[in-house]
Specification:
7-stranded mixed sheet; globular; 34% helix; 308 residues; single chain; Spore Coat Polysaccharide Biosynthesis Protein SpsA, Chain A; disordered C terminus; two-stranded antiparallel sheet; alpha/beta; 12 helices
Length: 308
């Protein structure tokens, strides 16, 4: 399984904060926004990841992550001259995907919940052709809506319908087989001049190859694309971390418990940031004796097999 993080766009809804920086590098409380989708792919066991962003910003992501080896990852980067819709990511990444399945996540989406790693990895295990993740919302008319039967087989997809057929929105997390680039090439731009992810999902639906995984009541899904939602996400992360004592989307912590980063490397990373809370947290993990039991107790389950 390969991974793609789509971190392009102009971020106009967050202007002027994004006039000089990519929105996915803005902080969601104590870490860059892109850490959160990166953590989802890492917890899913995905190591080969492509980050797609604008020509102006791609170098900033390279400065942040390098080649990914420090985190046990293999990162590559691709510049998208202008946003032409989510499906274009599969066209751009065609050679990268090759014959593998691929998971794409939008870089402004945050997922959190007890058992999320287990749900994610189970979805990868049974994934066949295309899988979307549904989340119940109170205002489905604002989203792409998925209707499904008792066996969680998708019946229909609608983009911002006036009369939604369900309360489940399609989140910014998608899994596809290696046919995604070929099918994306066949799509025609919508009225707004972009390729639409709903149209790609409908192509899989026509073939009877689209499934849905539902995120239940215990999960949180946030889109940080506006000033209000960015503030709410930061508050959520702050409160959760302060009350539970562990950090969300701490990439070094995940890499350590997955066996990608040594205790010594984790310690040195924490030492370099020792003057702030993030660095102190890494030092605490590096110095903790019974680390694996602590991690397993949080239901991250990192020792599940890596998805190939």
């Amino acid at each position: 399984m390969k991974g793609i993080i789509l971190a392009g766009g102009s971020g106009t809804r967050l202007s002027p904060s994004t006039d000089s920086i990519n929105k996915h590098l803005l902080a969601v409380y104590d870490k860059p926004m892109i850490y959160y989708p990166m953590s989802v792919l890492m917890l899913g066991g995905i190591k080969d990841i492509m980050i797609i962003s604008t020509p102006e910003d791609i170098g900033r992501f390279e400065d942040l992550f390098g080649d990914g080896s420090e985190l046990g990852l293999n990162l590559v980067y691709k510049a998208q001259k202008e946003p032409r819709g989510i499906p274009e990511a599969f066209i751009m990444a065609e050679d990268f995907i090759g014959d593998d399945d691929v998971t794409l996540i939008l870089a402004d989406n945050i997922f959190y919940g007890q058992g999320f790693t287990t749900l994610l990895r189970n979805a990868m295990k049974k994934h066949r052709h295309a899988t979307v993740f549904g989340y119940r919302v109170k205002d489905p008319e604002r989203f792409g809506v998925v209707e499904f039967d008792a066996n969680q087989r998708v019946v229909s997809l609608e983009e911002k319908p006036e009369n939604p057929k369900s309360d489940f929105a399609v989140t910014g997390l998608y899994m596809y087989d290696s046919d995604a680039p070929r099918l994306a090439k066949k799509l025609k731009p919508s009225a707004r001049g972009e390729l639409e992810i709903t149209d790609l999902n409908k192509e899989y639906l026509k073939r009877g190859k689209l499934d849905v995984e539902l995120l239940g009541r215990g999960f949180a899904w946030m889109d940080t694309g506006t000033n209000e939602s960015l503030f709410e996400a930061s508050e959520f992360v702050k409160i959760t971390q302060q009350r539970q004592g562990f950090k969300l989307a701490c990439l070094e912590e995940i890499a350590f418990y997955m066996g990608y980063m040594s205790r010594e490397a984790l310690y040195e990373k924490g030492k370099a940031m020792a003057k702030n809370d993030y660095g102190a947290y890494l030092l605490d993990i590096a110095n903790r004796e019974h680390t694996q039991q602590y991690w397993d107790g949080l239901d991250h389950n990192p020792m599940l097999e890596v998805v190939e």
